[in-house]
Amino acid sequence: MTHSHNPEPGWYDDPEVALRLRWWDGTIWSHHTRPKPVIEHPAEHAITGHVTTLGGSAPGSMVIAAPLEVQPYNYSAPYSWSPGSATGPEFTQPVTAQAMVYEPEGSITPAAWALAATPLVTLLAQAAAAVLSGFESTPFMWIAGAALIPIFWIIIWVRRDLITLDEWGHLRRAHWAWAFLGDIGYLTARTIVVRRQTGGHGWAPLLTNLTLTAVLINVGIFTPVFEVLRGAMM
Length: 234
Known about the structure:
Helix content is about 40%, strand content about 10%. The chain is built from six helices and seven strands. The protein has helices at about 110-115, 120-135, 140-165, 180-195, 205-220, 225-234; strands spanning about 10-15, 20-25, 30-35, 45-50, 60-65, 80, 90. α1 (about 110-115) packs antiparallel against α3 and α2 runs antiparallel to α3 (about 140-165). With about 230 residues, it is of the alpha+beta class.
């Protein structure tokens, strides 16, 4: 069924979780969610002074006035929808989206820190490949597998990072294809996209990765994993 008066895109009450907002894109509910903002309720100033209560409180006691009653911060869901509905949201009435400044829940995921540690993982993989290549009886596949560990590491954590960013409400994310340029390539693209949505946050994983890479190269114990793989094949 087509609705001629769909609500404007915006954040509305999540039909599934009462304390959460979900992004309505103007047509359907998206997967982007965020907690409802906490609104401070105004309260009357505390009244101090020498008072006497019915219970005979001593002079100098404090009486705190009850907070003023205010209406809670309301969000109106544009559609009434049960999670088990097969046909999706049913139209009730159009509403105006609540205007609010949007910012995702966070900027640095555990997966981003795992990607930041990729130089250390690569170093361990190089050491394992070097040890295995020292034994004539070691199958070549073992050596190649050890050298490929950092590549699988990057693939796994890039995927996990993109999933988490989506769950945290990032409407834009770096494309997974940046992983073809390695951990530094993906983290660079990720940082640029994330900081635009979080007010400049999200630099730490990239800076950590670059620092580890520079230190390991300077001490002469780190080479790109592709060089290790090529050496194992010769």
